Amino acid sequence: MDSLKGFAWLLAAQSLGEGIARLTHAPLPGPVIGLVILLLALNFSFVQAPVQAAAEALLTHLSLLFVPVGVGVMVHTGLIAEYGVRMLVVIVLATWIGLAVTALALRAFTPADKD
Amino acid sequence: MQNFVELWVYLSATPLFGLTATIVTYVLAQTVYLRLNQAPWANPVLWTVLVLAALLTVSDTPYPTYFAGAQFIHFLLGPAVVALAWPLWQRRFEVRRRAGAILLAALLGGTVAALSAVGIGYALGLPTEVIMSLAPKSVTAPVAMGVAEKIGGIPALAAVFAVLTGLVGAVSGKYLFDALGIHSLATRGFALGTAAHGIGAARALQVNADAGAYAGLALGLQVLLASFLMPLAYRLF
Questions:
Q1: Same domain for B148 and B185?
Q2: Per-residue model confidence as pLDDT tens digits over B133-154
Q3: Hey, is the C-beta of A81 within 8 angstroms of any chain B C-beta?
Q4: pTM for the full model?
């Protein structure tokens, strides 16, 4: 029951976020505004346990949620045939650079004993 | 045989097909992944996507037919982004204590990931709309789509790039960190969440709870930073 209640909180926060995004033409997507709203709502103790149950259930299987979009790669065979290798080079190199810079930066900014 | 073909034609056209195929394939891929001691190359998303794309191509099933069922899973990406509030909230004291280091690393890592994609893409002579679809690739798929739309990219392509980026991070991150001598699991998780979003974070979560928490935190921060700063940067330049 807790996870269902929590899911209701998630959807309510997202709906509110979508509404605000639409009304204010905010540069942030609706779910992101929903994230901030939920972060504020978590200050109320009765929100915490349900949200924990729903969030953990959803985030445990987070990678499954990317499958439908990933399969969409088959629609872009034209672009892939033309630029596939180059696009892959960009993705692999830029991802490695991003990973390395983030990890090295966090380590550099953190005192050695805390790392 | 004739009956079987008719049955397949009927079933493959209902939303039930896309939903069932996605979950069954993923559960199988997940089982194999666990059996192989979570080897990075056995990543369940990678293999689920490959198997499904092959299955649809071989059976001549159009992507929209598949998506009619798979959209129920796809829809949950929105609530999942909202749910990132939980790992952020859980780590709020730690975040406040290390706020400077965490924010700087997230900002620097996210900026470098986006700029290097744009730079390399430009150097390789890719079309502008492809480059603009590559720019938000380190942000989680639903947000990457929104950002791509705002900066002149193709949302569907941006989502695919985001998934591929997550896979590159999840599959090769371990070796890259080992080579760089980065051993702190928290730091590794944070980098995966920043540069390889949800799929990288899912990998971190499977390896270690601490790495997973930092990955979730980084993912949430990246979503906030990128969706605010990228359209702003695009308008300025």
A1: yes
A2: 888 888 877 778 878 888 888 8
A3: no
A4: 0.82
List the domain range (segments joined by +) for residue B46.
Answer: 2-75
Last residue of a domain, one of B75, B101, B123: B75
My answer on whether B86 and B38 are in the same domain is no
Instruction: List CB contacts (< 8 A) between A106 and chain B.
Output: 101-102, 105, 187, 190-191
Residue of A nearest to B89 (CA): A39
CB B116 within 8 A of CB B234: no
**Tens digit of each residue's pLDDT, chain A (115 residues):** 788 999 999 999 999 999 998 898 777 778 888 988 999 999 998 988 999 999 989 988 888 988 898 888 788 777 778 888 888 999 999 999 999 999 998 888 876 544 4
Angle at B200 between CA A12 and CA B82, to 5 degrees: 10
Do B92 and B34 lie in one domain? The reply is: no
Residue in B67, B88, B199 nearest the CB of A39: B88
* Contact criterion met (CB below 8 Å) for A37 and A9: no
The three-state DSSP-derived secondary structure of A15-50 is: HHHHHHHHHHCCCCCHHHHHHHHHHHHCCCHHHHHH
- With beta carbons under 8 A apart, name residues in chain A contacting B81: 14, 29, 31-32, 34-35
Q: What Rg, from alpha-carbon coordinates, does chain B have?
A: 19
Task: Tell me what percent of the residues of chain B surpass a pLDDT of 70.
Answer: 99
Closest chain B residue to the Cα of A52, Cα to Cα: B86
- Is there a single domain that holds both residue B50 and residue B107? no
Q: Are the Cβ atoms of A35 and B85 closer than 8 angstroms?
A: yes
Same domain, B120 and B223: yes
Enumerate the domain spans of chain A. 2-60, 68-114
